[in-house]
Give the backbone structure.
Amino acid sequence: MIEYRKVTSCQEFQEHLPELIGSGLDVSGDPHLESCELCKALLSDLETIAAAARELFPVEDPSDRVWEQIKSAIQEEERDPSPR
Amino acid sequence: MTQPRFTAHPPDPTASRAGGPSEPAVQDPPPAAPAPAPLSSDADALMRAQAGDHYAFAQLYALHKRRIYSLCLRMVGNVAEAEDLTQEAFLQLHRKIATFRGDSAFSTWLHRLAINVVLMHLRKKGLSLISLDEAMEPTPEEGPGRSFGAPDLSLAGSIDRLALERAISDLPAGYRLIFVLHDIEGYEHNEIAAMLDCSIGNSKSQLHKARLKLRDAMRTFPRREGRR
């Protein structure tokens, strides 16, 4: 469990960010954020990036060449089953 | 080591393009379905592939190729390498499929197998975890303060998926690796630390720096595009 205490300076707040983002802790009430728009924007951006990444899905199929080579390699291994 | 027992599958002249008439042919996979296949298809194909059914192995390839290829592509950021690694991952699967005992979901097992293939490849290429430790040292160019900017440039609600994909592929290898494993593939820091043989703190720090770099990239993206 992360021990989080409210911080007052930008530097101190940023030092905690690697621990805070994705931890499930609600830091929106941190007094520093109420007075610092830059840290607020930073936190918002990093959370947005993390959330967007979770929504990424597999992008495309490999080319047909990949399966052709897998087939060839399997057939080769079956002809010569020495350990690889 | 137990080798998968591949028996000759009844030749299917409409599907097979490999091998002569006298040798067992590995079947072509059925056309890829755009939507994920039902779990029962996976389980059935797995059971038959473990028993040595070529066509079932081809089905497993068709079911999982997109996810495995995307994983490889995101981890290495290069199409040719990603295709080679996809090939190697499925060859490893072919060799080891009989050892799968169902302790975890097959997709999880295959996913981990593919990650190991990629990590082995990256280590051979010289991606040292020492470089990850070195990257933890703050530099004037990479300190968190550098990512500060005017609040009106906030990314909230404006993330473009393709731009994010591109920015991820442009990340330095070490950053990309941890970002992909944690934020996209959903591994915890303790799992990543074990996989990469680094500390949990290192994994967290690398992830944070990767997100900062992505933030920089995403904020400059519209301007880059606008110059075209």
Observations:
- DSSP finds four helices and no strands in chain A.
- The first helix of chain A runs from residue 10 to 20.
- Chain A touches chain B through 48 residues (CB under 8 Å).
- Chain A has a mean pLDDT of 82.
